[in-house]
Design goal:
By secondary structure, this protein is of the alpha+beta class. It contains eleven helices and 22 strands. Helix 2 packs parallel to helix 3. It starts with 14 loop residues before the first helix and ends with a helix.
C-alpha cells in the first residue's frame, strides 16, 4: 500500500469537497456492482469549478463562473465496460448508478467482439494537492477584473497599439477515486491561464497585426499573475515596440532556411507531432474519428528513428506546475515519468490500463482522464517534453551558429494531418538571422515539415537555461468531445534546412 503526497502545497483540500460522504458513496457503489457480478469497479466523485473574465480596451466584455458536480461508476462485466453517472451525491444514487452500469455492460456483452482487461496496479491510499500559493477563487472578482484592465491600459498607452484584450481563465478540480482493489485517493489541483493581446490597425487599409503574450498557462495559483513564474510586467512593457516593429516588417521570402525555434513555439509542435502521435490508442487505430490515428504504429516500437540522436522525449504526470500533473490518474494509477523517444528512437507510448494490458506492456503509465463526472475516462496526454542537453548551448549560441536563417518565437496557428505526419505552424514573432545575429522581424511566415524528417534535422539542442514549460488548457479528444489540460517542456533547438512558407501568398493561391 502506498501513500501519495503533493509537492509541499501551500493550500489545504477544499473542505466543501473533503466533507462530502465520499467513503459512503464509494462503498455503496462498489458493493452493489460487486454483488451484481462486476469483476472491476471504479467510482469517481468530482467537482470542477471554472472561471473566466475578459476585457477589451478599457471595458469588461464578460465574466462567468461554472461548476460541474457528480459521481460516476464504471464496471467490467465479462470483459465489457459499463458506465453510469449521477449528479446526486448520495449513497442511494451511487448504488443506482452501479446497477445501471452493470446493466449497460450486460446488454453490451453480446455485441463486444474484443474482451477488455485492465493492467494490474498496486493499491494506493493517499491525497495529493498541486503546488500553488493562492487559490484564484479566493481573489475577489473585482480584483481580477482590475488586473486585466491594468494590463490593457499598459498596452494601450503606446501610440501604435489601437486595441488590447486581456483575459484570465482558472480551474479548481477535485476528484475522489475508489476501486474494488482497495485504492482510495482524493486530489485537488488548480490551474490558471492569463493572456493579453495587442492589436495595431492601419487606418488607411484596415490591415492589422496582433501580438500575444508568451506567458503559458500553468498549474499555479493567483500568485502567477503577480509575477511568480513569469515576468508579466516586463513582457507587457516590451510588446508594443515589438508589435510596432512587426507592422513595418517585410514579408518573408519563402524558401529553405536554418531555423532556431524558441520553446515558446516548439512546445506546440511537440504536442501535435509527438504528443498525439505516441498515444497508444491512436497508434493502434482505436482513436480515429477525432483528429485521426498515428504514423507511429506499434510495429515501430524500439526501432523507428523518430529524430536525431540527441532527441530525448519523456512523458510524465509529475512535473511541478505541469497542467497534466496529478497524483493519481482516473484509473487509480500513481503518476510516473517515462521515456517516449530516447537517442532518437521511439521507445514508449502513453497508456491507460486497458491499452497496457492489451499489448502486454505491463503496468499503465497513468494516462487516463475524464473531463467531468459524466464522462468515461479516456487515454489522455501526459506532459510530453523534449529534454535539454546538460550543459548545452544558450539560445544566443544557437542563433550564432546560423549564417542565414530565422528565429521563431511564440505559438499561433497550426495544421497537421490525420496521421500526425505532415504539418504547418506559424508563430507570434519571426526574426531574420544573418551571420549569427538577429536582423529584425519578418511577417507572414510559417514553417512546414514531415514529422520524422523534421525531428531528424535537429542539429543542436539547448541547455537547461533555455528550458520552458508551455501548454494548453483545452486539448480535445473523443466523441463526445472531452478537453484536457497538458504542458510540454522543451529547450531552444536549432534545425537545419526547414521549409519556410509565406502564409500570405499561400492563402492567396
Amino acid at each position: 500500500m502506498s501513500s501519495g503526497t503533493g509537492p509541499a502545497p501551500q493550500s489545504e483540500m477544499d473542505p466543501a469537497f473533503a466533507t462530502l460522504p465520499l467513503e459512503a458513496i464509494a462503498d455503496a457503489a462498489l458493493t452493489r456492482a460487486r454483488d451484481r457480478g462486476a469483476s472491476h469497479v471504479e467510482v469517481r466523485v468530482e467537482r470542477t469549478k471554472g472561471s473566466h473574465a475578459r476585457v477589451r480596451d478599457r471595458d469588461l466584455q464578460g465574466a462567468a463562473d461554472q461548476e460541474a458536480v457528480g459521481l460516476s461508476v464504471r464496471v467490467l462485466l465479462d470483459g465489457t465496460w459499463g458506465f453510469a453517472a449521477s449528479t446526486e451525491l448520495t449513497s442511494d444514487a451511487a448504488a443506482r448508478a452501479a446497477s445501471d452500469a452493470v446493466e449497460v455492460a450486460a446488454a453490451s456483452v453480446p455485441l463486444n467482439k474484443e474482451r477488455v482487461d485492465v493492467a494490474t496496479e498496486p493499491v494506493h491510499v493517499g491525497s495529493w494537492i498541486s503546488a500553488y500559493e493562492t487559490n484564484p477563487f479566493d481573489v475577489a472578482p473585482t480584483d481580477r477584473v482590475a488586473l486585466l484592465l491594468e494590463w490593457a491600459s499598459i498596452l494601450l498607452a503606446h501610440p501604435r497599439v489601437d486595441h488590447a484584450d486581456a483575459s484570465v481563465n482558472f480551474v479548481q478540480e477535485n476528484k475522489f477515486y475508489a476501486d474494488l482493489s482497495g485504492t482510495t485517493t482524493v486530489q485537488q489541483r488548480v490551474r490558471i491561464h492569463p493572456a493579453a493581446t495587442a492589436v495595431a490597425v492601419d487606418a488607411t487599409s484596415g490591415a492589422f497585426e496582433t501580438m500575444r503574450t508568451l506567458g503559458p498557462p500553468a498549474g499555479r495559483g493567483w500568485e502567477y499573475v503577480g509575477g511568480t513564474g513569469w515576468d508579466w510586467d516586463q513582457e507587457l512593457s516590451e510588446m508594443p515596440e515589438l508589435l510596432a516593429e512587426k507592422t513595418s516588417a517585410p514579408s518573408v521570402d519563402p524558401g529553405v532556411y536554418d531555423v532556431v525555434i524558441d520553446p515558446t513555439n516548439l512546445f506546440l509542435t511537440i504536442h501535435e507531432s509527438i504528443g498525439h502521435a505516441t498515444e497508444l490508442d491512436r497508434a493502434l487505430g482505436y482513436e480515429a474519428a477525432y483528429a485521426g490515428t498515428s504514423f507511429a504504429t506499434f510495429d515501430k516500437l524500439g526501432a523507428f528513428q523518430y529524430g536525431a540522436p540527441m532527441m530525448h522525449v519523456t512523458g510524465d504526470r509529475t512535473a511541478k506546475h505541469g497542467l497534466a500533473s496529478i497524483g493519481f490518474d482516473d484509473e487509480g494509477v500513481e503518476s510516473q515519468s517515462w521515456d517516449l523517444v530516447r537517442d532518437g528512437i521511439l521507445v514508449g507510448y502513453q497508456l491507460n490500463r486497458a491499452m497496457a494490458s492489451r499489448q502486454g506492456l505491463g503496468r499503465s503509465n497513468g494516462c487516463a482522464f475524464a473531463d467531468s463526472p459524466g464522462r468515461v475516462p479516456l487515454q489522455r496526454m501526459a506532459n510530453v517534453s523534449l529534454q535539454p542537453v546538460p550543459g548545452g548551448p544558450t539560445t544566443e549560441e544557437l542563433i550564432a551558429a546560423v549564417g542565414d536563417g530565422i528565429y521563431i518565437v511564440g505559438d499561433k496557428s497550426w495544421s497537421i494531418d490525420m496521421q500526425r505526419y505532415n504539418f504547418q505552424f506559424t508563430g507570434q514573432r519571426f526574426f531574420r538571422v544573418r551571420n549569427g545575429r538577429l536582423a529584425g522581424q519578418v511577417r507572414d511566415a510559417a514553417y512546414q515539415g514531415v514529422t520524422p524528417e523534421f525531428w531528424r534535422s535537429m542539429e543542436a539542442v539547448g541547455g537547461e537555461s533555455t528550458y520552458f514549460l508551455g501548454g494548453s488548457f483545452n486539448c480535445g479528444k473523443g466523441q463526445p468531445s472531452q478537453i484536457a489540460p497538458v504542458s510540454h517542456g522543451c529547450p531552444s533547438v536549432l534545425f537545419r534546412q526547414v521549409r519556410i512558407l509565406n502564409s500570405l501568398h499561400e492563402a492567396g493561391r
